Amino acid sequence: MEISGNAFSAGLSGIQAGQRRVEQAASEIASNTVPAQQPAETPPQQQVSPGPETQGNTSADLAESLVGLTQGRNEVQASARVVETADEVLGTLIDTRA
After folding, report:
1. Domain count within the chain
2. At what angle do helices 6-31 and 52-97 cross, to 10 degrees?
């Protein structure tokens, strides 16, 4: 009797893909620079403050990275469930044959 590992392979591939997505999103979040809070005092004339369009892009990029992080987590959880189910099915098959 030959047992195919397709469910295990699909689950492991999904876990690896989710892990890569989480690592990429975490890297993007870590490298994202958030502008520092300006003190209440008037800033010196030489200091350049970021414009509103720059802050909007940073927020959008951060939001996309956070969504990617959540997607990766969900992908890993779903794939882990696939592996667990394949393990249960294999155990049932072995118990039935024995």
Report:
1. 1
2. 160
